[in-house]
Amino acid sequence: MSEAKFITLEGGEGVGKTTNLQFIEHYLASRKIEFIRTREPGGTPAGEAIRNLLLGLEGLGPEAELLLVFAARAQHVDQVIRPALAAGSWVVSDRFTDASYAYQGGGRGLDPAAIGFLENWVQKGLHPDLTLLLDAPVEIGLARAKRRGGPADRFELEVPVFFTKVRQAYLERAECYPERIKVIDAARPLAEVQADIARHLDALRPS
Ligand code: Z5A
Does any ligand 1 atom lie closer than 6 A to the CB of residue 95? Predict the structure, then answer.
């Protein structure tokens, strides 16, 4: 099979990452491509424990939030992502470092240089081959997330302007890395969104 690829899914609240991950899983399985599905924060026992802190602990400052995200990522990269890729398995992750630039950089206003330092230190040159950025106006994502129901976490309790900054930061990342980050208009019907996702996945595979 082809060289293993590292794919990440990004986007703001309620844009459809979980929904479209199922589509990607089906796409890869039907082509007999071996893969693992994982997520951030999370993906390891330590990472899942850190996720619970990040989503639930009151009073976390922006710097503490950023360091926790990267603590989880360090475990994830070393224990899950690198070993899977080395074994020839594709890796599909629900969020990765672009989320830190968007949420901690854009949303919380932290210096991107600090994020870049941690990125280099923790990832040691590892970057996704393809990032699918699901983009929709904030009000659409929030309305979808609300319809889905369930208790709100620390991020979901943020004000709309926070999510506007997150969206803006994601779009700026996409402008900086157009080869890797593909922006998909996620406000459209699911079939159209998934046709675009399939097109990008097709382009990733050798002909
Ligand atoms: N975080 C961070 O701050 N820094 C970091 O570095 C990282 C993460 C890695 C947890 O993320 C939080 O971690 C996240 C940022 C922070 N907080 N927030 N917000 P998460 O990914 O676990 O949580 P999430 O962003 O809240 O994801 P979500 O709520 O699960 O949303 P989603 O997966 O994008 O959406 P969905 O569940 O697939 O879809 C929502 C609903 O919309 C659902 O009913 C679908 O059926 C519907 N849907 C989806 N697509 C469509 C279309 N095209 N049309 C109509 N309806 C649709």
Answer: yes
Which residue out of 24, 96, 103 has the highest number of ligand 1 atoms within 8 Å of its CB and is therefore the one to mutate? 103
Per-residue pLDDT of the chain (207 residues; tens, 9 = 90+): 459 999 999 999 999 999 999 999 999 999 999 999 999 999 999 999 999 999 999 899 999 999 999 999 999 999 999 999 999 999 999 999 999 999 999 999 999 999 999 999 999 999 999 999 999 999 999 999 888 878 888 888 888 899 999 999 999 999 999 999 999 999 999 999 999 999 999 999 765
Task: Count the helices and strands in the chain (H runs, E runs).
Answer: 9, 5
The per-residue DSSP string of 140-177 comes to HHHHHHHHH-S---TTTTS-HHHHHHHHHHHHHHHHH-
For residue 30 the two structure tokens come to: 């039907």
Query: Tell me, what CATH number does 46's domain have?
Result: 3.40.50.300
Q: Is the pTM of this model over 0.85?
A: yes
Residue 1 located in a structural domain: no
- The answer to the question of residue 158 being in a domain is yes
Rounded Cα distance between 96 and 205, Å, is: 21
Per the structure, the complete domain to which residue 123 belongs is given by 6-204
Distance 95 CA to ligand 1 centre (A): 10
Q: How many domains does the chain have?
A: 1
Ligand 1 within 6 A of 29 CB? no
